[in-house]
Design brief:
The protein is an alpha+beta fold. About 45% of the residues lie in helices and about 15% in strands. The protein has helices at about 15-30, 40-55, 70-80; strands at about 10, 15, 65, 65-70. Helix 2 packs antiparallel against helix 3.
């Protein structure tokens, strides 16, 4: 049975977007950018996305098997758009 649009959740690599934000928050704690339990703000999420985008450039030389016009880096960047 299809899920209605109002009940769908954004997923990044089969991980809910809210979990990605939680993973970014955990990384921010490890980097001493926030204290454990503190929420991550949008500026910190944006910074994390910039770091991931830089990392995606490392795999831009590899084509995406599902769409050869795209690279694996394009897939990574596209997934983060949902955040």
């Amino acid at each position: 049975m299809p899920i209605s649009a109002s009940h769908q959740e954004n997923f990044v690599a089969d991980i809910p977007a809210r979990k990605i934000r939680a993973l970014f928050a955990e990384a921010a704690v490890r980097a001493d950018a926030i204290h454990p339990g503190d929420p991550i703000d949008q500026m910190q999420v944006d910074f994390a996305i910039e770091i991931v985008t830089l990392c995606a450039r490392l795999v831009d030389r590899y084509p995406n098997a599902e769409c050869t016009e795209d690279t694996i880096g394009d897939v990574i960047r596209g997934q983060l758009f949902e955040l």
